[in-house]
Design brief:
disordered C terminus; alpha/beta; 9 helices; 7-stranded mixed beta sheet
Length: 212
């Protein structure tokens, strides 16, 4: 596993944890939109894992709708902020590595990762998706929508690279929909946010094993 990724994650997010809430303010509407895409047929029984939870904004969007939520992150500083903000009894936060999750198979109905995959090298991204598949029946992925038009793509990547990590350009080169299918997921719902700057996928497993 890429040790520089772990150093970056703990270092950068530890340093900016206190300021992250302000950075993420424009995403509040997307957090609520993601929570609204949960199938509420069995609302009282739904357990949700929020991967890369940061300061907990997405976890709180799930929690206020009555779901049982666990948020995990590598950064203790980010989780410290999340715990201070927490006013819900149905959400808790755990320091954990998303490539080796401390949960049993199928423990959750949903596992969500929002704006996390583009922060990871490809090897870590693969492990995280496989672990999300192992511990949950469905997953939700929220991240940048990379345009197919060459000019729009260049503008998007050039602008976003100004403030994102060194892993973003690798993420932008890959097709997220194809990556999800490679890991054995079937996309059942799609939506956009911030016009079409962000894409939301709700997926279910095709099978228990990863498809090659």
């Amino acid at each position: 596993m890429d040790e520089s990724y772990y150093r970056y994650t703990r270092g950068w997010f530890g340093k900016w944890a206190w300021f992250y809430n302000f950075i993420a303010l424009p995403l509040i509407g997307i957090r609520n939109k993601v929570a609204e895409m949960i199938d509420e047929e069995y609302k009282d029984k739904i357990k949700i894992l929020d991967v890369y939870t940061g300061t907990g904004t997405q976890a709180f969007a799930f929690a206020k709708r009555g779901y049982e939520v666990v948020g995990i992150d590598l950064s203790e500083e980010m989780l410290r902020v999340a715990k201070k903000k927490n006013k819900y009894e149905n959400v808790r936060f755990v320091v954990a590595d998303a490539t080796k999750m401390p949960f049993e198979n199928d423990y959750f109905e949903y596992a969500c990762i929002s704006f996390g995959l583009h922060e990871m090298p490809h090897e870590v991204r693969d492990h995280v998706l496989d672990e999300m598949k192992r511990v949950s029946r469905k997953i939700i992925v929220v991240d940048y929508h990379i345009p197919k038009n060459r000019l729009h793509r260049w503008l998007h990547v050039s602008f976003t690279s100004l403030y994102e990590s060194k892993y973003y350009r690798d993420f932008a080169k890959r097709n997220l929909e194809e990556l999800l299918r490679e890991h054995g997921f079937r996309i059942v719902k799609e939506a956009y946010g911030l016009m079409d700057f962000v894409k939301i996928f709700v997926c279910e497993r095709k099978s228990l094993g990863r498809e090659e």
